[in-house]
């Protein structure tokens, strides 16, 4: 993938003191090739490397103290610039603010509508309403209701009505009557760009004049993503791009191309199927990610959001008093699961992405552990030392696991408890720091 290729291209320069004009040119050629391979338009890639070269010469990279590092920084800064430079907010000033989703079928509009509603609802001042305007499939309306229930956000729909413009208007009226200050309108997409879809979304757009029109695109669709973005932008002149499915192997080639071709900012990214798998798009972090440095900042930030501080303090007390039990352990697992897919998280750790590529890690990794803990009595959970062999047998049977698996978990838990005790003093903060490093 792009990241591996850029890694290779930059390898000569990274850390090493000696570079010459020849290997600057050679490296930039590799960088260009890697970008083109990742679906970046050839012209854009060529301009990109030309700019980097010019800057490198202008800053006298070859004579600098650490030319390799300076080159990496130049490439990174330039990539960041290419993807928009600064973070772009969405317009929430409307009363209510109207956000219109557009994009092909399967791009992730419905999922992202839910994620955005959830994201905004956690800011205490926002009360979102989801509006179901995909009238072609009853299942689409159901899907939005499921999402709404999951995150505790109201969904407005009108199953008898097949006029999306009317539903959108009624939804906005409903929001006004019920004190909702953000209206997120989920629309129908089709598998490919066609006139019917474009006319429909243009009609909705014209009728409701949204504060934000967002174009949702599957980052795995490569060069097609750029063509689709162009088609939608020609009709809607949208305000921002949402790049979904960035949890897979894709490394952001689409981000570079789309920004360059339609010149609209990427505002959010989707990194998984869960409602929490949403991140603000940071061009500089994406550049890091493309360059294979790992999106550590995002990882740490997400972890900080999910770990409730109060909980953490309570936990620290328990550890100090040797009262950490399986109930607490279970809570920890649930916290980790809330952070998203394990694979996504591991992929964000520098270096780990490559190592873990072939390993089969998913949420199921915790299934056995959870089952075993659920089969324990409250007393066993708080005092694991009482779990003798007959108790082990019972727990194994109850959870559908083997005695070996029960033993293994007890052993791991024991080791972990000892380690936690040892780490006391530094506390949770130190653990977070370790995670970051
Ligand atoms: P829509 O047709 O545009 O409304 O697309 P959906 O929201 O129904 O999403 C299509 C599929 O993509 C569903 O199976 C989603 O679970 C999945 N999906 C959406 N966003 C993401 C994402 O960021 N990562 C992953 N892995 N899957 C996603
Ligand atoms: Mg949908």
Automatic annotation (TrEMBL):
Q: Transmembrane stretches, by residue range? A: none
Give the record's GO biological process terms.
SRP-dependent cotranslational protein targeting to membrane
What does the record give under GO molecular function?
7S RNA binding; GTP binding; GTPase activity
Main subcellular location: cytoplasm
For this protein, the record's CDD domains field holds: SRP_G
Family annotation (SUPFAM superfamilies)? P-loop containing nucleoside triphosphate hydrolases, Signal peptide-binding domain
Specify the SRP54-type proteins GTP-binding domain's residue ranges. Answer: 265-278
Enzyme Commission no: 3.6.5.4
| Binding residue positions for GTP | 103-110, 186-190, 244-247
Q: Which family does it belong to?
A: Belongs to the GTP-binding SRP family. SRP54 subfamily.
How is the subunit organization of this protein annotated in UniProt? Part of the signal recognition particle protein translocation system, which is composed of SRP and FtsY.
UniProt name for this protein: Signal recognition particle protein
Organism of origin = Aquimarina algiphila
The organism that produces this protein has a lineage beginning with: Bacteria, Pseudomonadati, Bacteroidota, Flavobacteriia, Flavobacteriales
């Amino acid at each position: 993938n792009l990241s591996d290729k850029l890694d290779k291209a930059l390898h000569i320069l990274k850390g090493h003191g000696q570079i010459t004009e020849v290997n600057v040119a050679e490296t930039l050629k590799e960088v260009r090739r890697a970008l083109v391979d990742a679906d970046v338009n050839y012209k854009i890639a060529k301009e990109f490397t030309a700019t980097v070269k010019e800057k490198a010469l202008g800053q006298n990279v070859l004579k600098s103290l650490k030319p390799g590092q300076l080159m990496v920084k130049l490439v990174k800064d330039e990539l960041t610039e290419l993807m928009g430079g600064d973070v772009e907010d969405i317009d929430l000033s409307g009363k209510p603010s109207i956000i219109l989703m557009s994009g092909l079928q399967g791009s992730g509009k419905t999922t992202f509508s839910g994620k955005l509603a959830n994201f905004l609802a956690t800011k205490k001042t926002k009360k979102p309403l989801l509006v179901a305007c995909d009238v072609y499939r009853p299942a689409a309306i159901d899907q939005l209701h499921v999402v709404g229930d999951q995150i505790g956000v109201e969904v407005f729909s009108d199953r008898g009505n097949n006029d999306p413009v009317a539903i959108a208007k009624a939804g906005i009226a409903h929001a006004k009557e019920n004190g909702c200050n953000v209206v997120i309108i989920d629309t129908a997409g089709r598998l490919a760009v066609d006139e019917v879809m474009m006319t429909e979304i243009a009609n909705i757009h014209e009728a409701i004049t949204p504060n934000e029109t967002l174009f949702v695109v599957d980052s795995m669709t490569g060069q097609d993503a750029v063509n689709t973005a162009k088609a939608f932008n020609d009709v809607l002149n949208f305000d921002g791009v949402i790049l979904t499915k960035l949890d897979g192997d894709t490394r952001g080639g689409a981000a570079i191309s789309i920004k360059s071709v339609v010149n609209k900012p990427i505002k959010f990214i989707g990194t998984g199927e869960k409602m929490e798998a949403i991140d603000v798009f940071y061009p500089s972090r994406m550049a890091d990610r493309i360059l294979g440095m790992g999106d550590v900042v995002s990882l740490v930030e997400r972890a900080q959001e999910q770990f409730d501080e109060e909980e953490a303090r309570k936990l620290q007390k328990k550890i100090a008093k040797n009262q950490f039990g399986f109930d607490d352990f279970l809570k920890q697992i649930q916290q980790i699961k809330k952070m998203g897919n394990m694979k996504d998280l591991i992929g964000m750790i520098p270096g780990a992405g490559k190592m873990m590529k072939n390993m089969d890690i998913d949420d199921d990794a915790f299934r056995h552990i959870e089952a075993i803990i659920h089969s324990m009595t409250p007393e066993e959970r708080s005092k694991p030392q009482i779990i003798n062999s007959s108790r082990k047998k019972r727990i194994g049977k109850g959870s559908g696991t083997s005695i070996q698996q029960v033993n293994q978990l007890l052993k791991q838990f024991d080791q972990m408890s000892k380690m936690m005790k040892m780490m006391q003093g530094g506390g949770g903060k130190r653990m977070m720091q370790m995670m970051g490093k």
